[in-house]
Amino acid sequence: MIRVLVADDHPVVRQGICAMLEIEPDLEVVADVGDGGEAVRRTLETNPDVVLMDVQMPVLDGIEALREILRQRPGTKVVMLTTFGHENYVVPSFKAGALGYLLKDVGRAELTRAIRKVASGESLLDRPPASSPDASPISQRELEVLRCMAREMTNREIASHLYLSENTVKTHVSHLLAKLGAQDRSGAVLRAWRQGLLPAEPYPPPAQNHPGGG
To answer: ∠92-204-167 over CA atoms, to 5°?
Structure first.
């Protein structure tokens, strides 16, 4: 039996995740909590096999709670829960010791598969990139788009910032996903960080360029 703790400050999301897990014969929800402080306390009390941790919570955010859990109980397996558009949380989560990340709207099959994989000691990043070894290198323009993605900028914001059309940005994003072997923007940012294409810390908000400015 795999024992799971669910930490999310949105009751509906938390209850939905718990409901998906409770129908699985090999999974047991040992606790569900609504803030980072409780996540730390209940993890130490219940000793779950896997913790599902929202990145944004009151008292302690998910990353701080993750650090505290691993400080007090090294080896705890934690998967971060994110929403689309929060790519800049992904790299700090893995630096802090998370073994994976999942979007909150993940389906039951993917969620339970991820929990079982992490419980067995694997990282959710262990799958090989989809791109071939001789894939085209990332261009300078694609790197600029990638840096904007790491700042949580939307395609429209990237287009405005780099003076490109939105369709061109979408094309660059698609190429980046393929070249990095990622399924989504968060995965692309994370894989880029692991390959040394991005710095370890999140980027600050971008300054808007002005044509002809000094």
So the answer is: 95
- The reply to whether 90 and 180 lie within a common domain is no
- pTM for this entry: 0.68
CA distance 63 to 36: 9
Look at residue 124 and tell me if it is in a domain.
Answer: no
**Spatial separation of the C-alpha atoms in residues 212 and 186, rounded to whole Å:** 33
What is the number of structural domains in the chain? 2
Task: Yes or no: say if 82 and 102 are a contact pair by the CB < 8 Å rule.
Answer: yes
Specify if 125 maps to a domain.
no
User: Can you give the residue range of the structural domain that contains 172?
Assistant: 130-214
82, 101 in Cβ contact below 8 A? yes
- CATH number of domain containing 159: 1.10.10.10
Q: Are residues 45 and 135 in the same domain?
A: no
Bridge partners (DSSP) of residue 81 are 54, 102
Q: Are residues 57 and 155 in the same domain?
A: no
How crowded is residue 211: how many other Cβ atoms within 10 Å of its Cβ?
5
Specify the DSSP element, H or E, that contains 52. Answer: strand 50-54
Q: What is the pLDDT of residues 165-202, one digit of tens each?
A: 999 999 999 999 888 888 888 888 888 887 778 775 54
Alpha carbon 188 to its chain's center? 10
Cα 30 to Cα 100: distance, rounded to the nearest angstrom = 20
Distances (CA, A) of 174 to 37, 131, 149, 183: 39, 12, 12, 10
